[in-house]
Amino acid sequence: MVSESSIKLNSNKAKRRASSSSEDKENKKPKTQANDATPGQNERRDDPAEQSTVHGSGESKPEEPIIPSVEKKEEPEESKKLPNPYPETWSQESDVVEETRDRRPTPGRNHAAVTDPKIRDNLTDDPDLITREIAKIDELIAKAPRRKGPKSAYLKDLEYRRETWADANDHFHPLYVCFAKGPNGSATYDDNGFELDYHKVAEWMKPKTVATRFDKQREEEKEMTTIFWEAGAAPRESDWMEYGDLIRDKVSKDLGIPWHKVWLKEFQDWESRGFQKAKRGEFAKMTDGERKRSLLVRGIRVHTKYPPSDKYVRDRPADELVARQLGRQYVSKDERNSPRMPTAVLLSARKDGRIEIRPNLVTRIMREFEPVMKKSNSSQTLVELCSALGVELDKLTDVGTLYLQSKHPADRLLGRNLLLSASRAGSLAATIFLVYSAHSQQSLNAAELVKPRIHLKSSVQAGTTNVQALVLQGILYRDRKLYKEAASCFEKAIALAGRKDTDDSRFVKFLRWIGLDIGLQDPNLDKRRPQDLALDQVEAHIQLATLQNNHQIGGEGSENLKIAALEYDDPRAYYMLASVNDQYSYEWLQYMMKAAASGYGSAMEEIADLLGFSEEELKKLVPDQRVQDWVLESPVHWPRLGDHFHWPGSSYFSGCTYQDIPHRLTRYRWAVRTLRRCDWAVKWHEAASVRAQKNSRLDNFNYAMLYWRMADILEEIKRPLHLVRYYRASSLANARHLERSRKVDKELKKFSEVEFRLFEQHHMYREAAEILDRWMAEGPRVEASMNISWLLGMLRSIDRVPAGTWRWNRKRVQSNVGR
User: Where would I find the TPR repeats (predicted)?
Assistant: First the structure.
């Protein structure tokens, strides 16, 4: 049957060039030191990067590197034999498990086909099959119609199929060979050594919607999960990618059938035979060894052994492919050839205050530290250098972060080892940077982070006065659900600010009393360091308030939020303080407006949504009359709209009697206020997008609805048609962008389709679509964006055309394309 790894197409269509070492690592028997050893323990692989970890040792396998680094080299043997100066209790904090559970060989695998593409294709009956198929595709490519602009999807598909046929190492090459042979052809193997089933391949070749395929697959995955575990012991269904291969491998070896043939029917057979089901926690998570083995089974191998098959093989960056498959950072040729840390960069950093050490001392420290940075005495050497040159150890943290930003990989490696050695030597600043960066990147379980975590914890337990260390350790306690210990750290950090306040002189207290912000910041705080700004007393107040609001500890969370908001003027605290109050209450509006004005993106979105409500929505969703009045009577004035709407045009009063004029004026003033309010909401959405440095699909929906509403108001008050058409075209542009986007939430997709369907009933919809098409086809681009000035000029030229009647003449454009 066909392998699941062979029929699952990668989302970005990156064809993986499968390659493997001559040694079959998957089915290799483990080397044990005793006959009664458990499989998977006390074994040693040939690859040093895949050696199993042992509980309680200090050499657990590194995970994702915390900071940019080049490929790691093996440490010297003398450094591995050094005793661990840290207590052995750190293994309780690490997430070390056995690297493998079941070392039985996978049944039904042709090992010769793994490394030899000729055996995989098995073309003894028809040796000219590949050449003949490539010639057919070349003929189709030659006959394919050409057009100006990007290639058509049909032509791209032909080129992709040709490349897949030509490259015998392509992951999908065996599928095309098997399908071309037919149901009675010779056996074909995938790049993992499993025989392909023609009927499965033919089913995969048929076009099928993604939703249908995924829905069926999800149902079968759910049933397999229920069968494998005992009642109530199964993990979450959303974690299938983590445990799916594990349970299929277990069933495959229990039944003695190939791994790729195991699916729902085989699970039911496994259950009927009475195999023992798994308990809670078993097979729920892959170890590093099992994850690498899964990649090998799926055909993602590391080394290539066989030569290119023919002249059609594509050139690929093999070094990049190998680095990414090994989980290492790819170092390009330009990076390798870039210069080492220039002196000009050090001088500029010294001038800007990013480092406090003189550049000549930095150069000397780095020159003498680099030869010993991988040795066991690197920390001692660093301390001796700092003592001889009169440099504080904590000041090397800024130097290390500066080297991490270098383009040369050797500089980044040097900066990483400098920070690690400084942390081992006792630098709390380096420890805070390493642990904070690892926490931000969710890689705290890396082996190189074990000692910095121990150093941070021991410093806090020893009674450090560093606020950043207390807050960071409190966050680590919170993540491990040790809420009392976390609250204790946050309270100590908060108390340090109060203790400093009581020890200040009368002059400092007087300056603070008259309003100057003096004495509230921690003396260890350095505003140049992002980790210091993110781990100050404000963060301690916010984290403590979060624990209190979630009822994880006792206390009133709003009091801590008020301190962080009112005393430190923190935007995030204002936003959280608003969230504590009832939504759309007057207190909510005050705090949310303060957070939005301070630049907090989520608060900007909340204010924009409030301003975008219609009068009916305001009465339904906003109970406070003061908030309603603020929204409807807001005095905000935007020059783009305000200068032209003080008095309506004469066309607005056409057809009305003298008695209707006051009513018309009242209606006009209401329309102008609504127009300004919608424009204000658009401005808040734009500010939030700029703040977040991205434009979400929800923003496209909001822009589409607001622009269409503004066009309705402009049409009602008889404003020039070019303004009405401009806003309708802008609305459709956002709506079309949302409809054609792939990464859209399902609920938003359904809701937007209902709303946008109402646009089609409008008498100006077709005209707006024609305007948008012409704008996209003929309008010039300015920095990858459409030129709005060109659109307004075009719309002014057709102002005399009645609304809803203009159509775009495409003949002229087609003739230009033909030329």
Answer: 467-500
What pLDDT was estimated at residue 281?
A: 80
- Considering 156, 176, 205, which residue would you say is the last residue of a domain? 205
Tokens of residue 798, six digits: 């057709």
Paired tokens of 818: 């033909």
pTM of the model: 0.54
Quote the DSSP letter at residue 781. Answer: E
Per-residue pLDDT, averaged over 233-245, amounts to: 79
> How is residue 625 written in tokens?
């009359």
Beta-carbon contacts of residue 277 (< 8 Å; ≥ 6 apart): 227, 228, 229, 230, 233, 271
Instruction: Say whether pLDDT at 157 is over 90.
Output: no
CB 675 within 8 A of CB 727: no
Between CA 345 and CA 150 the distance in angstroms is 43
Torsion of CA 504, 507, 508, 513, to 10 degrees: 120
pLDDT digits (tens, 9 = 90+) for 44-101: 333 333 333 333 333 344 444 433 433 344 444 443 333 333 333 333 333 333 445 6
Element (DSSP H or E) covering residue 782:
strand 781-782
Predicted local distance difference test score (pLDDT) of residue 715: 86
Is residue 168 situated within a structural domain?
Answer: yes
Q: Return the number of other C-beta atoms located less than 10 Å from residue 317's C-beta.
A: 12
| Span between the terminal Cα atoms of the chain, in Å | 53
Among candidate residues 184, 205, 226, the one where a domain is terminated: 205
Kindly state the helix (H) or strand (E) to which residue 499 belongs, with its residue range. Answer: helix 483-503
Helix (H, G, I), strand (E, B), or coil: what is residue 582? coil
Please calculate the CA angle 223-224-226 and round it to the nearest 5 degrees. 65
In order of 86, 286, 787, the CA distances from 780 in angstroms are 65, 52, 6
Distance CA 92, CA 86 (A): 13
Domain that holds residue 775: 640-818
State the Cα–Cα distance between residues 117 and 112, nearest whole angstrom.
Answer: 9
Written in H, E and C, the secondary structure of 11-30 is CCCCCCECCCCCCCCCCCCC
DSSP string, 686-729: HHHHHHHTS--HHHHHHHHHHHHHHHHHHHHTT--HHHHHHHHH
| H helix runs in 167-257, sequence order | 173-181, 198-205, 210-228, 240-255
How does 384-410 read in b/e, with b if 16+ C-beta sit within 10 Å?
Answer: ebbeeeebebbbbbbbbbbbbebebbb
- Structural domains in the chain (count): 2
In a domain, 123, yes or no: yes
- The answer to the question of residue 111 being in a domain is yes
Across the range 802-814, mean pLDDT stands at 72
Give the DSSP letter string of 303-351.
---SPP-STTPPP--HHHHHHHHTT-----HHHHHS----HHHHHHHHH
Contact between residue 180 and residue 129 where contact means Cβ atoms under 8 Å apart = yes
- Burial (0-12, 13-18, 19+ Cβ within 10 Å), 588: buried
In this predicted model, what pLDDT tens digit does every residue of 474-531 receive, in sequence order?
999 999 899 999 999 999 988 886 554 444 445 555 555 555 554 444 444 455 566 6
Decide if 67 contacts 438 (C-beta within 8 A).
no
Mapped onto helix, strand or coil, the DSSP state of residue 189 is strand
* Tens of pLDDT, residues 391-405: 999 889 889 988 988
Cβ atoms of 336 and 319 within 8 Å: the answer is no
Q: Looking at the domain assignment, is residue 659 inside a domain?
A: yes
Distance between CA atoms of 4 and 500, rounded to whole angstroms? Answer: 64
DSSP H/E element including 785: strand 785-786
Chain segment 258-284, per-residue pLDDT in tens: 877 788 888 999 998 889 888 888 887
The encoded tokens of residue 327 equal: 């989980």
d(CA 489, CA 319): 46
